């Protein structure tokens, strides 16, 4: 391959925080030109989510905006809106995550832009969708974790419901959005027409319930809260070695279980009654997990990790975040990189996990400073001369 999959696709990005920006970052990672439109002076709200920060930039913003260009435009002015409309006319994709109705008030709604550019793929990411009884209501990731049942599944067996510390609803929804955009771009290339994509955090939250939802549909009951375990599989969980170090193992199939007890532990008796089948082990969960815990007290954590892995058992040490990000296999895979940032210097950050063997090796660009590419975009995309750009800046339309 001589080009990345989305090379030549221009994305106009009016989103902020996580769900929209992570969607457009996936598109940028795959070669799209992403122009991030921000408010002069303040920019994406995530720029102010500090501490920690480096080079004046907040960590939240740095996490979701690599490989983009930033232009600062006051879209509430007539001149600023005209600039956005002109860019939309030459773009392939438009992404926004305003509350429903805001894009229309700003004059950048789908109907308006479709008249300018019938090819445009327009993606709206909102809390509850563009229509419906909840569409006007604001929503944030942890609220959806609570409201859509995810918290009820998390936490210790006899503890209280607990949210996931990461913004998993934002992240999952962003991936649904980027998938939908890619599909629509394929259709755009074939038909020459665009479409409006409506993605909601509510939909993302419900969809990731996956097998938990099916458990309920099948049994009429919610799966029990299991802490570090799993309701239908035993053994799954964290165990301590003789040194107190924790490791986690998961035997999701009978073959993996046999690898554990026959190959690794040399206890073929545990592959017989009363623990022979998964159902047997689930029914005797506490008894069996306690038996394993006693066995694992005999040797330190790293001994068990090596022994179990050699026997083909899925397991690994329970690492801190620092340990995980510096793990040799993570570094070897290139999942962590250092980018040359204009104010932060050597910026250590993540890299896309999407491998494209045979494609060009792309050097990622750091998240842009606010308005870093304003002049470049006005000159090269809209064809304005330096005098016209200076007038826009003097009138505070751009920064």
Question: What would you say this structure looks like, in words?
Answer:
With 399 residues, the chain is an alpha/beta fold. Helices cover 39% and strands 15% of the residues. It contains 18 helices and 13 strands. The protein has helices spanning 19-29, 59-63, 78-89, 102-106, 110-116, 141-147, 150-153, 168-191, 201-207, 210-219, 254-264, 278-283, 285-296, 301-310, 321-325, 328-332, 374-380, 386-394; strands spanning 10-13, 33-38, 53-54, 57-58, 68-72, 93-96, 121-126, 195-200, 236-240, 246-250, 315-317, 336-341, 345-350. It has a 6-stranded parallel β-sheet, with helices on both faces. α1 (19-29) crosses α8 and α8 (168-191) packs across α9 (201-207). It is elongated, with a radius of gyration of 25 Å. The chain starts with 9 loop residues before the first strand and ends in a 5-residue tail after the last helix.
Q: How far apart lie the N and C ends?
A: 38 Å
Low-confidence stretches: none
Which oligomeric state applies?
Answer: single chain
In spatial order, strands of the major sheet run 5-2-1-6-7-8
What is the radius of gyration? 25 Å
How much of the residues is beta strand, in percent? 15-25%
- What share of residues is helical? 25-40%
> What is the tally of helical segments?
18
Backbone shape:
elongated
Structural class label: alpha/beta
Strand elements, count: 13
């Amino acid at each position: 391959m001589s080009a990345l999959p989305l090379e030549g696709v221009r994305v106009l990005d009016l989103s902020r925080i996580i769900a929209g920006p992570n969607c457009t970052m996936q598109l940028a990672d795959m070669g799209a030109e992403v122009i991030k439109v921000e408010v002069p002076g303040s920019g994406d709200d995530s720029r102010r989510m500090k501490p920690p920060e480096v080079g004046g930039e907040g960590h939240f913003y740095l996490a979701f905006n690599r490989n983009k260009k930033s232009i600062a435009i006051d879209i509430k002015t007539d001149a600023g809106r005209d600039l956005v409309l002109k860019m939309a006319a030459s773009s392939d994709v438009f992404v926004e995550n305003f509350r429903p109705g805001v894009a229309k008030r700003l004059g950048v709604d789908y109907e308006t832009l479709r008249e300018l550019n019938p090819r445009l793929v327009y993606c709206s990411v909102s809390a509850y969708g563009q229509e419906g009884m909840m569409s006007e209501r604001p929503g944030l990731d942890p609220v959806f974790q609570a409201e859509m049942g995810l918290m009820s599944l998390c936490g210790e067996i006899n503890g209280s419901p607990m949210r996931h510390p990461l913004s998993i609803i934002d992240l999952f929804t962003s991936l649904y959005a980027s998938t939908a955009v890619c599909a629509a771009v394929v259709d755009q290339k074939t038909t020459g027409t665009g479409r409006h994509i409506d993605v909601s955090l509510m939909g993302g939250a419900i969809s990731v319930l996956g097998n938990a939802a099916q458990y309920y549909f099948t049994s009429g009951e919610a799966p029990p809260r299991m802490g570090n375990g799993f309701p239908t599989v035993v053994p799954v969980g964290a165990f301590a070695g003789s040194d107190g170090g924790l490791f986690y193992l998961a035997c999701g199939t009978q073959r993996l279980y046999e690898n554990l007890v026959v190959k690794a532990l040399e206890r073929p008796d545990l592959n017989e009654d009363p623990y022979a089948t998964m159902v047997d082990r689930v029914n005797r969960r506490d008894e069996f997990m306690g038996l394993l815990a006693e066995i694992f007290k005999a040797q330190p954590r790293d001994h068990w990790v090596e022994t179990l892995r050699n026997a083909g058992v899925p397991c690994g040490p329970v690492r801190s975040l620092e340990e995980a990000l510096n793990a040799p296999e993570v570094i070897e895979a290139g999942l962590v990189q250092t980018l040359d940032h204009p104010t932060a210097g050597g910026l250590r950050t993540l890299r896309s996990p999407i491998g494209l063997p045979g494609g060009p090796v792309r050097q990622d660009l750091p998240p842009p400073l606010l308005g870093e590419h304003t002049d470049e975009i006005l000159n090269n995309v809209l064809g304005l001369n330096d005098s016209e750009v200076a007038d826009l800046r003097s009138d505070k339309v751009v920064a």
